[in-house]
Structures are given as structure tokens and as C-alpha cells.
Design a protein that fits this description.
Layout lengths: L1 H26 L2 H17 L8 H25 L28 H7 L4 H11 L5 H8 L3 H18 L6 H17 L2 H7 E10 L11 E2 L1 H10 L1 H5 L2 E8 L2 E8 L2 E11 L2 E8 L11
Parallel strand pairs: 1-6
Antiparallel strand pairs: 1-2, 3-4, 4-5, 5-6
Subunit structure: Interacts transiently with the RNA polymerase catalytic core formed by RpoA, RpoB, RpoC and RpoZ (2 alpha, 1 beta, 1 beta' and 1 omega subunit) to form the RNA polymerase holoenzyme that can initiate transcription.
Protein name: ECF RNA polymerase sigma factor SigJ
Keywords: Sigma factor, Transcription, Transcription regulation
Length: about 290
């Protein structure tokens, strides 16, 4: 019996990065993804494993279905969230694709757009775009027909493509982030306006736990003035550590050695479209693993 459980644990450990990658892309929350993966493990422990022909497929299916259930209830909680809700940042320096075949559905720009999809659409999109699952397999996982699975993916793709601007290159996004941090620290209004898109938006996620803007700040001039207004107070004693989270460059901001903000930008061309300030203490742990 112990040997059987050890074998089950070994199988689970091998596939765990993939399971976390599925759950995180589904939920945008590392904490919730970890809970889903743990629930999948408990099911695997107690299931009749001798009847499972493909353990990886079984675990991926269980994880996806659990994530769909969690996402349905999470949406209600996020509607009542204090201020803008942003995806929880996850360090990807050691695993650029976060357990997937491709780095799709991982960057903040796309994760924010995926919040507008139904849980089933999101599952189908994630499984197809990030994990390259065939449509018959997707259909089985989300309990629908192959034709319906294709429609789910198609609708999700159209939504993402219609709303998302062509992203800047990795190098350009990093350059713009560096320039933004430099200008923000200095409170340099002209430099800020120069790198912000005309319709740039700044989102601050404090979750009601820390002081942060409860409403998005819209427009290059307003964002620049907003950032300059708190420059003296915000940046005093701050050490900046550069990192890769969600497949893109980010600045980990620490004061007295304690991480208090993950700052990144979404960009297209040579301008910043979105500034993301992730400040909720409960959502910072996975960014510096």
C-alpha cells in the first residue's frame, strides 16, 4: 500500500508544474491555483488509480474541472473586491512557460482580458493556446462536443485579439519599464508623458489592505501627474530588484528588505499602455519565489 502511494506521489510530482500552470491561467491567482492542485492531489490519493489508463490526462482533467468550479465562485468575490483586481504575479525566471508548451495566457495583458470570458471559454482557450490540447480532448475535459469546443476556443481567440494591442517585444517592454521606474522615482512629468500612450491606464491593486488608488487613472497626462504627485513619499527608501514575472519584466519594490509592490507595464510599439501596481500583501508571495 505504501509503495502504491509512493508511486502515485511520484506521478503527481512529475505532472504538478503542468497542473499549476493550468490552474493559475484559469484563475489568475497563485494561492487559488495551489488550492486547486492540492484538491487534485487529494482526489488522486483516494481514487481507484488502477482504473486510470492515463494518469496525466486524469489529473489535468480533474484540475481543469476544479478550476472551473473555483472560478465561478471567485467571480462573485472579485466583483466585491476593493479597487481594481489584478492577476497575482508569479515568478517565471526558472520556468518561462509555467508548466506549459507555450507562454500563452500568462502575461498580464491577456490574463486581464481572460477575466471577461466564461469559465468554460477560459478553460478551452488555456488548454488549446498554452498546452496545445487537441479539440477532442478539450471537449472531453469541459464536457461538451468537439464542435462546441472549437466554438469556445474561437470565441475566446476573437475576444483576445479584438481587445489586445500588438505587444511590444520582450526587450522593448523591459526598456519601457526601466524608463518608467526612472521617471517615476524622479517625478519627471515630461519623461513620464513621453513614454505613456495617449490612453494609458494606471491600475493599483491594494485589495483594501494597503493605501492605493481605488479607481483606474486614465490618460497619459493624468497618469503622469498621478505618479508625480506621490513620488516623494512612495519612493523614499525603496530598493528596486528586477525580475521576470508572468513572462515579462517587472520591478520588485522593497522597503527595509520587505517586498511591498510588484510594478510592471504592458506596452505596444514604443509606448506604455497599462501601468500595473500590485500592492496587496496577500498577492505578492509568488512573485519572489
Amino acid at each position: 500500500m505504501a509503495d502504491d502511494l509512493d508511486a502515485a506521489a511520484a506521478v503527481f510530482a512529475d505532472v504538478r508544474p503542468r497542473l499549476f500552470g493550468i490552474a493559475y491561467r484559469m484563475l489568475g491567482s497563485a494561492a487559488e491555483a495551489e488550492d486547486v492542485v492540492q484538491d487534485a492531489w487529494l482526489r488522486w490519493q483516494t481514487y481507484d488509480r488502477a482504473a486510470v489508463a492515463d494518469p496525466v490526462a486524469f489529473l489535468a482533467t480533474a484540475t481543469t474541472r476544479l478550476a472551473i468550479n473555483v472560478l465561478q465562485s471567485a467571480r462573485v468575490r472579485r466583483e466585491a473586491y476593493t479597487g481594481p483586481w489584478l492577476p497575482e504575479p508569479v515568478a517565471t525566471g526558472d520556468d518561462p512557460h509555467l508548466g506549459a508548451e507555450r507562454g500563452e495566457a500568462l502575461g498580464f495583458a491577456v490574463l486581464i482580458l481572460l477575466e471577461r470570458l466564461s469559465p468554460t471559454e477560459r478553460a478551452a482557450y488555456v488548454l488549446r493556446e498554452a498546452f496545445d490540447y487537441p479539440y477532442p480532448r478539450i471537449a472531453e475535459i469541459v464536457r461538451t462536443s468537439e464542435a462546441a469546443a472549437r466554438q469556445l476556443v474561437s470565441r475566446a481567440r476573437k475576444h483576445v485579439r479584438s481587445e489586445r494591442r500588438a505587444p511590444a517585444t520582450v526587450a522593448e517592454q523591459r526598456r519601457l519599464l526601466t524608463a518608467f521606474v526612472t521617471a517615476a522615482r524622479a517625478g519627471d512629468l515630461a519623461a513620464l508623458e513621453k513614454i505613456l500612450a495617449t490612453d494609458a491606464v494606471s491600475y493599483s491593486d491594494g485589495g483594501g489592505a494597503v493605501r492605493a488608488s481605488r479607481f483606474p487613472v486614465v490618460g497619459a497626462a493624468r497618469v503622469a501627474k498621478y505618479v508625480r504627485a506621490f513620488a516623494d513619499r512612495f519612493w523614499t527608501g525603496v530598493a528596486v530588484e528586477w525580475a521576470t514575472v508572468n513572462g515579462q519584466a517587472a520591478a520588485l519594490l522593497r522597503r527595509d528588505g520587505e517586498l511591498f509592490t510588484v510594478l510592471t507595464v504592458n506596452a505596444s510599439g514604443d509606448r506604455v499602455d497599462q501601468v500595473l501596481w500590485m500592492m496587496n500583501p496577500a498577492k505578492l508571495t509568488a512573485a519572489s519565489r
